[in-house]
Amino acid sequence: MTGARARPDDGAPPPTSLPTAEVIPIPAATFRTLLLVLLAALVLAAPAAASSTQTTRFEAPRDLLDASTRSAALDEIQGFGVDSLRVVLLWRNVAPDAESAKKPDFNTTDPAGYAWGQYDALLTEAKARGMKVLLTVSGPVPRWATEDKRDNLTRPDPGEFAQFMTAVGRHFAARVESWSVWNEPNQPQFLRPQFDSRKRPVSPRIYRALYKAALKGLKAARVASPRVLLGETSPRGTGKVVAPLTFLRGALCLDARNRRQKGCGKLATAGVAHHAYTTRAGPRFVPSGPNDVTISVLRRLTTLLDRAGRAGAVPARLPLHLTEFGIQSTPDPIFGVSLQRQEEYRALSERIAYRNPRVRSFSQYLLRDDNPSTSGPVSSRYPGFESGLRTASGRAKPALDGFRLVLSAVRGKRTSSLWGLVRPAVRATAVQVEYRAGRQGAWRKLATVPTDADGYFLKTTRLVTGRQYRVTWTAPDGAALAGAATRPVK
Q1: How far is CA 374 from the centre of its chain?
Q2: Coil, strand or helix: which one is 11?
Q3: Which of 9, 140, 242, 485 could bridge 92 with an S-S bond, Cβ 3.0-4.6 Å?
Q4: How would residue 379 be classed by pLDDT, with cut points 50, 70 and 90?
Q5: pLDDT number for residue 146
Q6: CB atoms < 10 A from the CB of 310, how many?
């Protein structure tokens, strides 16, 4: 189903009618033990029962910002059952004389002063198709809008950015459902400096000024009640990258004890955006840095947000939006996993996000892989991302079928838990769960499993070593679809 999806409990299958049974007295001590076990189970199950929704977004700049591939890409994305896009608009790409240190003579708040190009065409077609757009306005910026005029990244001028956001709001407001400010502002390829000469983070305060400027610009454009997301942070810190929790504490003016510093007011925001990428170790990877946030440790981020809410730095109980995510595959020899493992990890990541009641959106980054370099050593030929559902040449990966019909298999001691989603479903339906022995065996029917109204399903089956699973589904138009082969993971 397109749009928001309600969360059924990802626990045991729905109860069935039970026959009348003889009532047998239970000793008091046994009853107390059973009661404690039941209460513990209810506590553990509580997050899954939270009243939350989760939407799917798609980001595919290579395909969507190219007029020759845009319509076909939108057809495919909508065919998956996705009706929401993330588009990153780079200020430098639309500004006049972007490489000049001297500001040109033009009205910076007038949309007519900018060359909107393919951004204009994309948002117009998305609007015509009834698709929602999250527009992330970001650097690099025109050199004339920076502090030292030597590059397109160092200390963008908040005043200039507010004027640019006024023009953006006036031009795109009718085609944008929500907004966010800057792409990965904790990364030096989008914002500089990240640290001062004493290795203290400075990018958080630069970002805070830019975020407030964006709000000012949208207000000047008379955008009614804009939904603006904060953050868009990358997942891990290094000597050159500020860790996401460190970055957010700085941007929200929180000290080491999460108290709001004097002189910093509450930031208005509709939620926090984050890019919870993991490593080739998979979604269960736990980063050693306590201020890093990958998909396995989203609680670190929501804990900080709750503390920030209690400190009055942001509204309470902010939702979390995972606005960029993907699993990289071969042929990247450094970050890529096998094609089958790519979809297994992607599906498990989506399952983890679904289980977290604070996550309101989950995104797929790339339809096609970025183009590789054709020269140099193999280790350096993949500077982009190989997280697409198709290869750079357009060949479908298993992840394409797996994204349409999601299946995540988790192995327990005696059972395997099969969770999934019929993403194109618009109402309750049913899937066939199939299995095979090993990689080449014939597929056999395991069960017919009903979904909820949003297309989610859950099936528990006995653990059989070596089995692989997939789901098949017949669409309303009669098309027979099959998902990717999936091996249970721990």
Answers
A1: 30
A2: coil
A3: 140
A4: confident
A5: 97
A6: 12
Asked if 210 contacts 267 with a C-beta cutoff of 8 angstroms, the reply is no
Instruction: Compute the distance between CA of residue 59 and CA of residue 77 in angstroms, rounded to an integer.
Output: 10
Residue 110: alpha-carbon gap to chain centroid: 32
Residue 472 reports pLDDT greater than 70: yes
Residue 19 makes CB contacts below 8 A (sequence gap 6+) with none
Residue 129 scores a pLDDT above 80? yes
Angstrom distance (rounded) from CA 27 to CA 245: 51
Cis omega (within 30 of 0) for bond into 193: yes
Going by C-alpha positions, the residue among 297, 290, 385, 292 that lies closest to residue 342 is: 385
Residue 403 CA neighbour count, 13 Å, CB half: 30
| CATH assignment, 47-404 | 3.20.20.80
pLDDT band at 263 (very low <50, low <70, confident <90, very high): confident
**Sequence ranges of the domains in the chain:** 47-404
What is the DSSP track for 14-52? PP------------HHHHHHHHHHHHHHHHHHGGGGS--
Q: Where are the beta strands (DSSP E) in 366-414?
A: 405-411
DSSP structural state of residue 78: H
pTM of the entire predicted model: 0.89
The string of DSSP letters for 206-273 reads: HHHHHHHHHHHHHHHTT-SS--EEEEEE-S---SSS--HHHHHHHHTTB-TTSPBPTT--PPP-SEEE
Triad 298, 300, 306: Cα angle to 5°:
105
pLDDT in tens, 301-316: 999 999 999 999 999 9
Cα separation, 175 vs 327, in Å, equals 30
Look at residue 435 and give its three-state secondary structure: strand
Encode pLDDT of 345-373 as tens digits. 999 999 999 999 999 999 999 999 999 99
Residue 136 to residue 174: CA distance in whole angstroms: 15
Q: 58 by DSSP, 3-state: which?
A: strand
Q: Is 128 exposed, middle or buried (0-12, 13-18, 19+ CB in 10 A)?
A: exposed
Would you give the distance in Å from CA 39 to the centre of its chain? Answer: 33
In the block, residue with structure tokens 């299958």: 13
What kind and span of H or E run contains 474?
Answer: strand 467-474
**Residue 392 is encoded by which pair of tokens?**
């750079």
Question: pLDDT-based confidence at 39, cuts 50/70/90?
Answer: very low
